[in-house]
Amino acid sequence: MTQVVVRRTQAERSATTRAAVLRATIDALVELGHAGTTTAEVQARAGVSRGALTHHFPSKAALLLAAMDVLYGEFSTDVRTAAADLPTGRARLRPAIALIWGRFDGPLFTAAMELWVAARTDPELRAALLPYERRLGAQLRGLCRDVLGADLADHPRAETAYQLLLTSMRGQAMAYVLQPDAPREGPHLDHWYAMVEAFA
Amino acid sequence: MTQVVVRRTQAERSATTRAAVLRATIDALVELGHAGTTTAEVQARAGVSRGALTHHFPSKAALLLAAMDVLYGEFSTDVRTAAADLPTGRARLRPAIALIWGRFDGPLFTAAMELWVAARTDPELRAALLPYERRLGAQLRGLCRDVLGADLADHPRAETAYQLLLTSMRGQAMAYVLQPDAPREGPHLDHWYAMVEAFA
DNA sequence: GCGAACAGAACGTCCGGTCTGTATGTTGCG
DNA sequence: CGCAACATACAGACCGGACGTTCTGTTCGC
């Protein structure tokens, strides 16, 4: 019965528990919503004590802001790496639309939406959320430009296609939120494809 | 100092307080969100006692369900009366789109969205919300059919236009939720108009 | 030893639900 | 018609639980 003492630096210890807590927070947001994401729930999911949680995040607001940071961070890396392996030319369009839709269809969007709605009536959260949302909007616009082709991006009607595409995807994602088990094989991709083609 | 005793029937008394409570509930949903809509807040806004509230709505769930009922009821009457005074022919299209957008741009949508998101992680609320949402969807589809013209409605690409229009409007309304004071004079109406025309 | 990482008890607040008591309509019976 | 019995509308105190925060004590790396 030799107790193996794993010796870790303070920075390592801090980083692991911090990451575990933030992961637990995001998971709780997805599964239980903003109302169900209590500090007790987070600490239970992360397997840390009350003291550990409050040590890293002195208030719940700090916790949510930090979670928001990693949330949008993951969004950004997803967006950046997404456009890497795509075909070129006209064949690019269809998988590209599916790829952008992938940014909206998943737990990350769900968690972000919970924070989004909560931020409406929480000034502190709202003030913190707006710049992130602005940055993400710019990134998505860049992704669309890359993905839909530069020729399309400079077309005057491209702005119409871009706005319609993103707002429609957000609206569709909202609809799916209430029906998490509904089949995702709807005709949306066809509709978006037809729309973008019509405006190209 | 003659005390004028306004003699009201039980039904009248019941109806007025019930209406006041439900109105206060919807207002609180809009101004404070689902989390801020506490029973104490509602009774304060409605100017009723705790007893009065619990007498009419034995649980908070019952209160929210009843509020949801009047909420979707107002939506429905709005939709029905909306299509009444519209021009005919081609001139119908532009004001029609603005009219449909009017269903999404306002406090009613905000309150419904709060319930919508809360319903995601609240099985009881979710079960109650789904049929309402289905009915509203059917009504909006009927409104679009009336408003975009029967010729358009039978066009095979009309389904695409319809889906894009409603999802895009929902997505745009979500974006405005975080910026309640932003100018509503964006180019969305032009985009939607162009899209519907392209698919007609 | 000194500070950071963590553990866990304790506290004050708020919220939803319940309970008892009172006033005001409504109804049935003579 | 008149009054008693009843039902409904409302008032407000009370309770148990949950939540976020604060506090004190302990371990561990430097």
Could you please describe the fold and organization of this structure?
Two copies of one chain form a homodimer. Helix content of chain A is 77%, strand content 0%. By secondary structure, chain A is an all-alpha fold. Chain A folds into two domains: 52 residues, Arc Repressor Mutant, subunit A; 133 residues, Tetracycline Repressor, domain 2. In chain A, helix 1 packs across helix 4 and helix 5 packs antiparallel against helix 7. The longest helix of chain A has 27 residues. At the A-B interface, helix 1, helix 6, helix 7, helix 9 and helix 10 of A face helix 1, helix 6, helix 7, helix 9 and helix 10 of B. Chain A binds a DNA duplex (30 and 30 nucleotides) through helix 1 and helix 3.
State the gist of this model.
The structure is a homodimer of 200-residue chains. Chain A is an all-alpha fold and 200 residues long.
Overall tally of structural domains of chain A = 2
CATH class of the largest domain in chain A: Mainly Alpha
Number of strands of chain A: 0
- What CATH calls the topology of the largest domain in chain A is Tetracycline Repressor, domain 2
Summed up, the helix count of chain A is: 10
* Share in β-strands of chain A: under 5%
What is the largest interface, and how many residues per chain? A-B, 47 and 47 residues
Q: Which structural class fits the helix and strand makeup of chain A?
A: mainly alpha
First-residue to last-residue Cα separation of chain A: 70 Å
